[in-house]
Each structure stands twice: as structure tokens, then as C-alpha cells.
Design brief:
This protein is α+β, with helices and mostly antiparallel strands and 673 residues long. The chain folds into three domains: 285 residues, 3-Layer(aba) Sandwich (Collagenase (Catalytic Domain)), CATH 3.40.390.10; 168 residues, no CATH class; 189 residues, no CATH class. Helix content is 14%, strand content 29%. It contains ten helices and 43 strands. Strands 30, 31, 33, 37, 39, 42 and 43 form a seven-stranded antiparallel β-sheet that branches. Strands 32, 34, 35, 36, 38, 40 and 41 form a seven-stranded antiparallel β-sheet that branches. Helix 2 crosses helix 3. The longest helix is centred in the first third of the chain and has 16 residues. It is globular, with a radius of gyration of 27 Å.
């Protein structure tokens, strides 16, 4: 149903203002709501259904014009005298746009067309503004807020969309433009869908109190944390400008520690990480092409021009549904990723593969699961949750990928490396209902909530121009032995080369947690790097047995471990899974030896590389997550269990009494034959 703009205008703006004040939301779309039809929420008087949808520019608004605010020239420098001219900043903005515009399979196009003399801050005024002015309370590096319709509307000639007394709609034009020459954009009369972007502004923080020094030359990138490369920041924000959300990919492969341009955090102390944002990742190129696919019209922006490649000639789509195995609910906001193999050697990628697999692996594209809705109050415009059954319609997902063979993995949006609040309404809905609690795994040949080998990734073949559907994933029901609480610190920055970190799992604890005939799926290691461009690479990971001495030290059997992996690659700011090769046989063997008194303690071990200097501008070793608050208040959320150990040489392990190392042993009941 189309709703005349003039009769619904007040309601549109009331709920829209609330939507824009939500946390910043490629892996998928930025989200808003759609209240078209004003459908009542069953059993909840005064509330209407607000479908969660993606935002996008209407094809009639492309190319999208932007104007640079000229009232701050030269560009302020938060750390000292100004040095960056507005002209050089403008050239950087246009080049940043061009790197998006040059995606051959996408018809998105954005350009700087001039300036605007705005002495105030950005806002909804039908001018797409690039500004170095921000509010006093603004603390981010930059942001890219958009104003969108939240109902399907019919724009009529002369409609004043932004309420400034000037008409913003003309029946005399077919494409959006500054038709009347007053500096703002007029839209053609006609029908527009909810989620259509009307205005987008990008603001960059240069305040002396908490702002940044923006640089434009590669040689200017440095380790000063309040200095940042303008092009990389601009390219990230311009991805939001046409509708892309954040992604979880902060580590492209086991050889490349840099993240995707749309990862929500920038390591401003790592020049290599800053400059890497200038290069678009395959993820954001796929989604820019999926949302704005070349070759899908005979005329207009989507029509093929010289050098364009039809989307359907290069890309296909992986689709399916994700379900939470423990809660038995469709899963909202989980991150699905498509991984491609590069079999140059026998190295490993992030521990996210089966032990039979060899070769480097790279995340090509990702997406988020779930179709969701909210309850919108007609009285206040507030958005509310009702129940999983109401708010989560399904767990469907799609991932656009170039034609090829992939494995599809799933991981929770659980705060490491990104929180649900930095992704979308859908991810937040899933998190609030407790759905972001599960272990990473891959889509397998016997997919279910109980699997024998969740690390085995069944290959999914995708043809260009086709959708490979039915790739349905159910998260595993597991038992995680977690002898730790929340992460309080990461360490240890002063560790020596070759140092060992170990966590003891007492045999009695293992037996109590182990289901009858249980499987030992693998281990989880909370890992971190100080420099975001560095891969968190360890010399080896080991699962073994050991014994305690009367003085509290431990001796581990490192010569004959239960499982081991050389050159183990962790995940930056996340739990890195290590999947064991034969979970069933391993579980039976361990339990038999425990029953016979042959095993008293199990140990999970990570060893640092022995070569120095450690990679990265900081030359700091890869770090592990620590739980513990020695000398701090509030007190720690769990006791210090005394199950964590350090060793310089692997001969004797000394108990750590100040922290719990965040290593998990993952068990599971056996699947039904």
C-alpha cells in the first residue's frame, strides 16, 4: 500500500528521528524499519509492526551528488597547526568515491559536485554533505548518518520533504538533481519504497578535545593514535553512505592480518592497517554489486556502459537458513562467511578448517542471518521487542560470491571482535534473545545440532548467475569447559620468544562434563594482536596430558600429545577454534585412560614463535585473553582458579595466580547413528 506523504508526514519524522539515533549499523545492509500498512501487533494495542529492512539509494538518485562544507579551510588539525588544504581533502574524497565507483559489477556512483557553506552541523536538508564539523559530544573518528523513508510513499510535485518551505519533488524531472538551482536535491515525483535514502552526510572529527589529525599521503601514516589516513576513513564511511553495514572480518587470511574496509574499528597506531583500508575487500565489492547490480536494466545507471560487467556473469549467491541448535529457534544476526581455499602449501587459516584440509584459506564474503521485525509505538515512536516468535520471522541469509567453490562457516556476533550493537537491529535482536551464544563451525554433509566433525566444511559449488540454495546450518549443542570469566586484559606484551601458555583441565572435571560416548570436538583460544595488520601466529597448539608436582608446578607430555598443530593461526580479538581430527575416537581414548587412572590432568597449550623480532610496527608477540582484576574494583566475576600456567622452556610449568587464561575445551554428545 502506498501512503500519501502529506497525510503521514508527522508519523514518518517521529519514528525516523528515533531510528537515526540508534547505534551505528559489508556483510549486509544498514537497517531501518518499514511501517507501511500500519499493521497492528497482535495482542499489543497501540503498537504497529515495524519490519526491519535494508536502506538503499533509489536508482533515480544515482549518481549521488556530494558537497564539501567550505566553512573550515584549511582542515583543522586536532594535534597542532592546520596543514591539510580543503582542496587536497576534496581530491581525497573524490578518489575515495572513485574506488567504489570503479567496481565493474556495481552501478553505484557517488561524486563530489561542489561545496556548501554550512556554518552549522550536518542534518536532514536534502544536501549530501561532507563536513569536518561535529557536535561537541561527538567522539568517533567519523560517521555517515542517512535519512530514509520508513513507509512506501508516493511523492507528489511540490512536496516539501525536509520541511524547510522549499519544494523537494518535481514532476518535471526523471532523475534526482538540483532542478531549481538552490543547492539541494529534488527528487522526481513517483513511488518510493521504505528504506529509500533521501539524504546522507559524512562528518569527520577534527575537534581539539577528542578529534584527529587527518593525513592524505601514504608517507604521513604513523603510529600516533590520534592521526589517521583520511582516504581509508572516507572509504569506510562512503560504504555506509550507500547502505553497507559493518562486517566481522578483521583478518582476511592466515597470511594477511588486515581487515575489510567495512570492519568497524581502525588501528590508528598501525600504519599498515590504516593504509589497507584504501583497498576494497572482496566482501564489500560483492555486496556493492549485489545491492546495485550492473546489467539489470536497459537504460539508466544499471544499464551496461563501456567497461561494465554484468553482475550475473561474475557472481552467484549462496543462500540458506541458520538455526540455533540449543534454543531451536531461527537465528537472527549470526555472521555467515564463505571461505575459498588457496592450496599453495600446507599452512592453516585461523584454525577454521578440518584437520584433513590443507592450504591457505581466505574469507571472500559474509552475510548476516535473519528476517526480523519490531513493535513500534504509535504514541512515542519507540521500538520494542515482544518475543522471539514475533520478532524473529526466520533465519534466512544470502551471501553474494564470485563463481567458485566455497565452504560456509557461521560465527556469533558476540562482542569479539564486534558487538551486535555495531552491526544492525537484527543482530541486536538475536543478541538480546540470547542467540549469539554458540561455537563457530562449518556447514557439513550431515548438518545438525549434534555433529561428529563440525570443523569439516562441505564444499559448496556456486555458478555465476545462479543461487545455490538450501545451505542450511544448525549450530551445534556443545559443552564448553570454560575455566575463566569475562576478558579483562590481554597479555603478555613482554613475553619471551618460545614461551608456553597452558590451561589445565582436571580429569574429574572432564569426566563430569563429558556426555556418555562424548566427542572432543576441539579447543578455543582467545587470541589478540597489538598491531591490527599482523596475523596472530603461534608456533604450535597442543592438547596433551600432564601431572602436578607437590610444589604446584606441572610437567606436560609435549613429546606424545593427544593432538597438535604446528604454526597455529589465531583470530584477532576473538576465540580461534581448533578442530580435532577424530573427535569420537579421541573422546573414548581419553575417558578410558581416565577410568584406568592413566590421566589425571589434561592441558591446552599455545607456544609463542621463537623467532624475533615479532612482526608488526610494535614488535609485540601475539597475545592471549586474560580474565582477572588483580588490585582493581569491582572484583573479578569468577574466582582465579589456579589452572593457568606459564613456561619458558616447556620443561616445567608454573601456576599463574593472578589471571585465568581464556582457553576452552569443547565437548559434545555423539550424533544419533
Amino acid at each position: 500500500m502506498k501512503t500519501p506523504l502529506r497525510t503521514r508526514f508527522a508519523l514518518l519524522l517521529a519514528i525516523l528521528s528515533l531510528t537515526l539515533s540508534s547505534p551505528g549499523f559489508a556483510g549486509g545492509p544498514l537497517e531501518t524499519i518499514d511501517i507501511t500498512g500500519l499493521e497492528p501487533v497482535p495482542g499489543l494495542p497501540g503498537f504497529i509492526v515495524a519490519r526491519v529492512i535494508g536502506i538503499r539509494w533509489d536508482e533515480r538518485a544515482i549518481p549521488v551528488p556530494y558537497r564539501v562544507n567550505s566553512t573550515l579551510a584549511p582542515v583543522p588539525n586536532a594535534l597542532g597547526p592546520a596543514f591539510l588544504s580543503l582542496a587536497d581533502a576534496t581530491v581525497t574524497f573524490q578518489e575515495s568515491f572513485e574506488r567504489w565507483n570503479r567496481i565493474r559489477t556495481s552501478f553505484i556512483e557517488m561524486n563530489v559536485v561542489g561545496t556548501v557553506a554550512n556554518p552549522g552541523r550536518i542534518g536532514f536538508d536534502q544536501v549530501n554533505e561532507l563536513s569536518f564539523r561535529t557536535a561537541s559530544g561527538f567522539g568517533a573518528i567519523a560517521s555517515s548518518p542517512s535519512t530514509t523513508f520508513i513507509i512506501d510513499v508516493e511523492l507528489l510535485d511540490g512536496d516539501d520533504i525536509d520541511g524547510d518551505g522549499d519544494g523537494d519533488v518535481s514532476a518535471a524531472i526523471l532523475r534526482a538533481s538540483d532542478f531549481d538551482g538552490d543547492g539541494d536535491t529534488e527528487f522526481p515525483a513517483g513511488s518510493y519504497k521504505a528504506g529509500t535514502i533521501l539524504d546522507n552526510d559524512v562528518q569527520f572529527n577534527t575537534k581539539a578535545s577528542n578529534g584527529f589529525r587527518f593525513t592524505v599521503e601514504e608517507a604521513q601514516a604513523d603510529t600516533v593514535t590520534r592521526s589517521v589516513d583520511l582516504m581509508g576513513v572516507a572509504m569506510h564511511e562512503f560504504g555506509h553512505s550507500f547502505g553497507l553495514s559493518h562486517v566481522l572480518n578483521n583478518q582476511k587470511s592466515d597470511r594477511d592480518g588486515t581487515g575489510a574496509t567495512m570492519f568497524p574499528f581502525i588501528d590508528t597506531g598501525d600504519p599498515a592497517s590504516e593504509l589497507a583500508l584504501r583497498t576494497l575487500d572482496s566482501d564489500e565489492m560483492a555486496w556493492a554489486s549485489y545491492f546495485y547490480p550492473e546489467g539489470t536494466a536497459k537504460k539508466g545507471p544499471a544499464a551496461l556502459q563501456r567497461g561494465d560487467v554484468p553482475f550475473k556473469h561474475r557472481y552467484g549467491v549462496i543462500s540458506g537458513e541458520a538455526r540455533h541448535g540449543v534454543l531451536d529457534q531461527p537465528l537472527a544476526g549470526a555472521s555467515l562467511h564463505a571461505v575459498v581455499d588457496d592450496d599453495d602449501d600446507d599452512d592453516r587459516h585461523r584454525g577454521q578448517h578440518d584437520a584433513d584440509d590443507e592450504g591457505h584459506q581466505k574469507v571472500v564474503a559474509s552475510g548476516f542471518s535473519g528476517t526480523t521485525r519490531l513493535a513500534a509505538s504509535l504514541a512515542t515512536g519507540g521500538l520494542f521487542l515482544v518475543s522471539p516468535a514475533f520478532n524473529i520471522v526466520d533465519g534466512r541469509y544470502s551471501i553474494p560470491v564470485p563463481a567458485g567453490d566455497y565452504r560456509v562457516g557461521i560465527e556469533p556476533v558476540d562482542g569479539q571482535p564486534v558487538s551486535a550493537g555495531s552491526i544492525s537491529f537484527t543482530a541486536q535482536i538475536g543478541a538480546i534473545f540470547g542467540q549469539q551464544a554458540f561455537n563457530e563451525e562449518f556447514y557439513g554433509s550431515r548438518e545438525g545440532d549434534v555433529e561428529r566433525r563440525p570443523g569439516f566444511g562441505r564444499r559448496v559449488h556456486v555458478r555465476a548467475g545462479h543461487t545455490r540454495g538450501g545451505i542450511d546450518i544448525v549450530t551445534n549443542r556443545t559443552v564448553n569447559i570454560n575455566n575463566f570469566g569475562t576478558r579483562d586484559f590481554v597479555g603478555f606484551t613482554g613475553a619471551t620468544p618460545g614461551q608456553y601458555y597452558a590451561v589445565r583441565v582436571p580429569a574429574v572435571q572432564f569426566s563430569a562434563a563429558n556426555p556418555p560416548g562424548g566427542l572432543v570436538h576441539g579447543a578455543l583460544f582467545d587470541t589478540f594482536v597489538l598491531d591490527a595488520s599482523v596475523v596472530p601466529r603461534f608456533a604450535e597448539a597442543t592438547f596433551t596430558t600432564g601431572e602436578l608436582a607437590p610444589d604446584g608446578t606441572a610437567t606436560l607430555d609435549l613429546d606424545d600429545p593427544l593432538a597438535s598443530e604446528w604454526r597455529f593461526v589465531g583470530q584477532d580479538n576473538d576465540f580461534a577454534p581448533w578442530f580435532f581430527e577424530n573427535p569420537g575416537e579421541l573422546g573414548r581414548r581419553i575417558q578410558r585412560r581416565i577410568d584406568r587412572g592413566k590421566i589425571t590432568d589434561l592441558f591446552l597449550v599455545l607456544r609463542l614463535p621463537q623467532t624475533t623480532p615479532f612482526p608488526g610496527v610494535s614488535a609485540i608477540p601475539p597475545l592471549i585473553g586474560l580474565d582477572g582484576r588483580p588490585g582493581l574494583t569491582p572484583p573479578n566475576d569468577v574466582p582465579i582458579f589456579g589452572l593457568s600456567y606459564l613456561s619458558a622452556d616447556g620443561a616445567s610449568f608454573t601456576r599463574v595466580t593472578t589471571f585465568n587464561f581464556r582457553f576452552s575445551l569443547v565437548l559434545s554428545e555423539p550424533p544419533t547413528p
